[in-house]
């Protein structure tokens, strides 16, 4: 082929290297009729496996059909219409025979079957103090006319009634009729209307609640989400403590849970004076720790200290996402503490757990602080261009890793720097005549 | 003999009463008539823990190493203070890789260890069964056998083994009274706090148990390789870390409260400067 010529490869290379079918060399020289060689080469030099268009058909295809088709402008009627209006349209006529049958779209004309009552039935079953017979009749007429589209019906209804009232009347009438007409109550008890009657009050409430949810402000949404997360966390911690319990539970498990909440507060004070010997540290923490042993652990009878620690770590970080857990681990490493203690004695495990909780608190506070800063700066940014943004940016950079070991002095210096920078915009605010363009020389105005 | 021993369950062995390592509170001995009562009654709010160390030590066989037998190793469970663990452990079952003959090895007495030789690293499952008065449930431990050292730069030496040990503590919560009394003086046990109201027997005179097989690992042939686990280090580091974190928290709280004081200021300020900015634009 041409490509091979260009590449300088021999034309008839080893046959196995080519297509699997043994291609006779005449293919490359022969060109099929009616198609130029290059075009044919586009197919890969082979005829297509399945011809898309039969070439013979392209040439000879007069209308050698047996049938004779014409199109005629004919009139038609539709069974969907109540008047006998005759309209016209194009019709495909085969051999002079126009098509029979109804208008093809008439089958889509569906309507709802509305029960109608006789006056007798009305007197017997359907009297309602809130509704006159006239209104009820009107309602039913509209229902039939508008196929139970209650919004439209409510709009058309002569006296003003709410959608729920109309629905309530309609469904209660239907229900009464069903029950009255049924040969026996059991026949009709399976009917959904009989089983669950329309409850107007409930519907009004539901719609109100729905619109309230839809129109909640962002703040409300956030608050709701927080409360739900809190509730979930409480539920989960309750489940965690109940999961290992059998039918015979110790006397007051609920007392344990409240104790667990207060115990961490107590255990901070004993741990502030740590002595190297375990025996003196142990009694101090043990008094609070054994009181706070979750009920589930007691049922285990025998367990490894590390199992307990893992469970407690998981329970403590159940609300935190995976990223937060990773950040806690990272912080532990930065502080020089093993993520899993090497010597997990009771005291060590307790300390470790407390440390983790404190780190979580720290991370939460940092996030809050970031959010607050972002909000505050959003206010400031709208007023003037750049001044506050630079100090903010540098602040954010060092918030994520507070315990970088080779630090910029931990603590005091950094706080001082931040305060200093925050004061700068404050000073700006106090001096309105100097516009903020000073940092962007392009924007210097003549008025300066 | 310790004063309460006649009341104990007959089948248990006498505990070592070497109690020099722990500070014990001693109260007057309580005379109890009903030994069965002690076996079933559980001490609420009490727990006993046994610090243990489990792991493997493996030696390269050097010249004698073949393709399928390159290392000899020992897996064991020992007390962290090298005391005798048979006070609580009835037997230990080591579950080895299925390629070993009889991969389930049972060790009925202290020291609870198993030596083997092989070429591959795998996870060993150790199941501890306790005496009847201790606990009905078994405890599972898992350990990854390590034959090859971390840094595979230098050639392996037959003298220096690869040691991997894990420290942990077996905690028995709400022990039965009988069990508690039996072991609370044992050096392998650690009793953090004695339950209120329990009168303890006085610790008896020291017994010499030279006639029996040594169950402790103090003079174990491999004891030179045992690692030391110091709680003090870890506690110090944790305390230091907590202090840092707490200080940081205090700082952040201060900052947060400062920011909460700011918003009014910035809002009015921004209103003012907004007006100014707009005026400036129209003027310009």
From TrEMBL, chain A:
<dbReference type="InterPro" id="IPR008468">
    <property type="entry name" value="DMAP1"/>
</dbReference>
<keyword id="KW-0805">Transcription regulation</keyword>
<dbReference type="GO" id="GO:0003714">
    <property type="term" value="F:transcription corepressor activity"/>
</dbReference>
<feature type="compositionally biased region" description="Basic residues">
    <location>
        <begin position="439"/>
        <end position="448"/>
    </location>
</feature>
<dbReference type="GO" id="GO:0035267">
    <property type="term" value="C:NuA4 histone acetyltransferase complex"/>
</dbReference>
<feature type="domain" description="Myb-like">
    <location>
        <begin position="127"/>
        <end position="176"/>
    </location>
</feature>
<dbReference type="InterPro" id="IPR001005">
    <property type="entry name" value="SANT/Myb"/>
</dbReference>
<dbReference type="Pfam" id="PF16282">
    <property type="entry name" value="SANT_DAMP1_like"/>
</dbReference>
<keyword id="KW-0156">Chromatin regulator</keyword>
<keyword id="KW-0539">Nucleus</keyword>
<protein>
    <submittedName>
        <fullName>SWR1-complex protein 4</fullName>
    </submittedName>
</protein>
<dbReference type="Pfam" id="PF05499">
    <property type="entry name" value="DMAP1"/>
</dbReference>
<feature type="compositionally biased region" description="Low complexity">
    <location>
        <begin position="276"/>
        <end position="293"/>
    </location>
</feature>
<feature type="region of interest" description="Disordered">
    <location>
        <begin position="373"/>
        <end position="448"/>
    </location>
</feature>
<dbReference type="InterPro" id="IPR027109">
    <property type="entry name" value="Swc4/Dmap1"/>
</dbReference>
<feature type="region of interest" description="Disordered">
    <location>
        <begin position="238"/>
        <end position="293"/>
    </location>
</feature>
<keyword id="KW-0804">Transcription</keyword>
<feature type="region of interest" description="Disordered">
    <location>
        <begin position="1"/>
        <end position="37"/>
    </location>
</feature>
<feature type="compositionally biased region" description="Basic and acidic residues">
    <location>
        <begin position="18"/>
        <end position="36"/>
    </location>
</feature>
<dbReference type="InterPro" id="IPR009057">
    <property type="entry name" value="Homeodomain-like_sf"/>
</dbReference>
<dbReference type="GO" id="GO:0000122">
    <property type="term" value="P:negative regulation of transcription by RNA polymerase II"/>
</dbReference>
<dbReference type="GO" id="GO:0006338">
    <property type="term" value="P:chromatin remodeling"/>
</dbReference>
From TrEMBL, chain B:
<dbReference type="InterPro" id="IPR005033">
    <property type="entry name" value="YEATS"/>
</dbReference>
<feature type="compositionally biased region" description="Polar residues">
    <location>
        <begin position="263"/>
        <end position="273"/>
    </location>
</feature>
<dbReference type="GO" id="GO:0006355">
    <property type="term" value="P:regulation of DNA-templated transcription"/>
</dbReference>
<feature type="compositionally biased region" description="Polar residues">
    <location>
        <begin position="14"/>
        <end position="23"/>
    </location>
</feature>
<dbReference type="InterPro" id="IPR038704">
    <property type="entry name" value="YEAST_sf"/>
</dbReference>
<dbReference type="GO" id="GO:0005634">
    <property type="term" value="C:nucleus"/>
</dbReference>
<keyword id="KW-0539">Nucleus</keyword>
<feature type="region of interest" description="Disordered">
    <location>
        <begin position="263"/>
        <end position="284"/>
    </location>
</feature>
<feature type="domain" description="YEATS">
    <location>
        <begin position="42"/>
        <end position="186"/>
    </location>
</feature>
<protein>
    <submittedName>
        <fullName>Transcription initiation factor TFIID subunit 14b-like isoform X3</fullName>
    </submittedName>
</protein>
<keyword id="KW-0804">Transcription</keyword>
<keyword id="KW-0805">Transcription regulation</keyword>
<feature type="region of interest" description="Disordered">
    <location>
        <begin position="1"/>
        <end position="38"/>
    </location>
</feature>
<dbReference type="Pfam" id="PF03366">
    <property type="entry name" value="YEATS"/>
</dbReference>
<feature type="compositionally biased region" description="Basic and acidic residues">
    <location>
        <begin position="275"/>
        <end position="284"/>
    </location>
</feature>
<dbReference type="InterPro" id="IPR055129">
    <property type="entry name" value="YEATS_dom"/>
</dbReference>
């Amino acid at each position: 082929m041409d490509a091979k010529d260009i590449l300088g490869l021999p034309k008839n290379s080893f046959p196995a290297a080519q297509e699997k079918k043994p291609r006779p060399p005449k293919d490359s020289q022969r060109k099929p009729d009616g198609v130029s060689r290059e075009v044919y080469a586009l197919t890969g030099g082979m005829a297509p496996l399945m011809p898309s268009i039969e070439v013979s058909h392209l040439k000879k295809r007069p209308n050698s059909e047996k049938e004779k088709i014409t199109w005629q402008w004919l009139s038609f009627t539709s069974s969907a219409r109540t008047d006998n209006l005759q309209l016209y349209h194009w019709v495909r006529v085969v051999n002079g025979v126009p098509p029979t049958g109804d208008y093809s779209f008439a089958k889509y004309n569906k309507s709802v079957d509305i029960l109608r009552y006789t006056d007798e039935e009305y007197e017997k079953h359907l009297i309602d103090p809130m509704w006159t017979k006239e209104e009820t009749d009107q309602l039913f007429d509209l229902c039939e006319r508008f196929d139970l589209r209650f919004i439209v019906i409510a709009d058309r209804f002569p006296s003003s009634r709410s959608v729920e009232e109309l629905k309530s009347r309609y469904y209660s009438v239907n229900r009464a009729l069903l029950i009255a007409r049924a040969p026996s109550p059991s026949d009709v008890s399976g009917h959904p209307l009989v089983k669950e009657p329309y409850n107007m009050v409930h519907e009004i409430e539901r719609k109100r609640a729905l619109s309230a949810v839809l129109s909640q402000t962002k703040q409300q949404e956030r608050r709701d989400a927080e409360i739900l997360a809190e509730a979930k966390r409480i539920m989960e911690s309750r489940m965690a403590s109940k999961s290992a319990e059998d039918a015979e539970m110790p006397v007051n498990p609920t007392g344990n849970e409240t104790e667990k909440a207060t115990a961490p507060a107590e255990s901070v004070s004993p741990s502030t004076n740590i002595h190297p010997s375990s025996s003196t540290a142990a009694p101090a923490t043990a008094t609070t720790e054994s009181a706070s042993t979750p009920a589930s652990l007691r049922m285990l009878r025998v367990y490894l200290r590390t199992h307990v620690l893992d469970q407690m770590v998981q329970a403590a970080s159940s609300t935190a996402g995976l990223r937060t857990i990773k950040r806690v681990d990272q912080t532990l490493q930065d502080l020089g503490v093993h993520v899993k203690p090497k010597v997990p004695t009771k005291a060590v495990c307790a300390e470790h757990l407390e440390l983790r909780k404190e780190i979580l608190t720290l991370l939460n506070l940092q996030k809050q602080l970031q959010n607050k800063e972002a909000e505050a700066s959003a206010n400031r940014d709208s007023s003037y261009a750049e001044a506050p943004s630079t100090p903010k940016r540098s602040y954010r950079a060092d918030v994520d890793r507070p315990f970088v070991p080779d630090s910029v002095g931990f603590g005091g210096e950094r706080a001082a720097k931040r305060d200093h920078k925050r004061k700068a915009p404050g000073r700006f605010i106090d001096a309105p005549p100097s516009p903020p363009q000073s940092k962007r020389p392009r924007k210097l105005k003549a008025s300066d | 003999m310790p004063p309460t021993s006649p009341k104990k369950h007959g089948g248990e062995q006498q505990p070592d009463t070497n109690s020099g390592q722990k500070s014990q509170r001693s109260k007057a001995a309580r005379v109890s008539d009903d030994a069965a009562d002690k076996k079933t009654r559980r001490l609420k709010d009490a727990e006993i823990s046994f610090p243990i160390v489990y792991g493997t030590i493996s030696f390269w066989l050097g010249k004698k190493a073949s393709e399928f037998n390159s290392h000899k190793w020992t897996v064991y469970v020992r007390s962290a203070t090298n005391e005798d663990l048979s006070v609580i452990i009835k037997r230990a079952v080591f579950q080895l890789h299925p390629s070993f003959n009889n991969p389930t090895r049972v060790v009925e007495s202290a020291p609870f260890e198993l030596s083997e030789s092989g070429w591959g690293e795998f996870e060993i499952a150790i199941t501890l069964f306790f005496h009847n008065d201790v606990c009905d449930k078994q405890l599972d431990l898992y350990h990854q056998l390590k034959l090859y050292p971390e840094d595979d730069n230098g050639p392996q030496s037959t003298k220096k083994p690869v040691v991997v040990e894990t420290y942990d503590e077996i905690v028995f919560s709400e022990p039965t009274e009988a069990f508690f009394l039996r072991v609370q003086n044992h050096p392998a046990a650690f009793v953090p706090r004695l339950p209120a109201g329990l009168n303890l027997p006085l610790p008896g005179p020291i017994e010499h148990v030279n006639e029996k097989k040594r169950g402790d690992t103090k003079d174990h042939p491999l004891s030179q390789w045992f690692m030391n686990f110091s709680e003090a280090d870890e506690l110090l580091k944790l305390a230091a870390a907590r202090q840092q974190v707490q200080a940081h928290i205090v700082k952040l709280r201060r900052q947060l409260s400062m920011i909460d004081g700011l918003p009014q200021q910035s809002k009015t300020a921004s209103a003012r400067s907004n007006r100014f900015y707009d005026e400036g634009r129209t003027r310009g």
